[in-house]
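ok so for the tutorial part 2 we go from a plain amino acid sequence to predicted structure tokens. step 1 is just haveing the sequence, like this:
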Amino acid sequence: MIRYEYLTLVWIKRTNWDEIASIREADSYAAVPEQTWTDEWYIYHPHKSEPEVRPGSILMSELFNEFGRDGWKLVTSDIADSVIVNVAHGWREVGTPIKRVFILIKEVLK
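step 2 — the prediction. this is what the tokens look like for a chain of 110 residues:
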């Protein structure tokens, strides 16, 4: 009998903008940190309660190749969240993904 298992990859990009806005609201003359962006991969393996966390500097293709060698196949992907940024690629006020979700499947013989 063939059984299927699913693996979920979630890429999240975060910024410290909320912290900056809070400082400005409390004191408009206070020194504020520069806005920064960080990103991470969260890998939800079957039968595990906590995700594996990897740095966002890992290329998507590296992860797909790694899991592909283990028999995983991409089923679907989705941009789960996006945000409007000031300027990107020559555009003003353009949307950019900040959370992407990828679902992979693997056949498991049982």
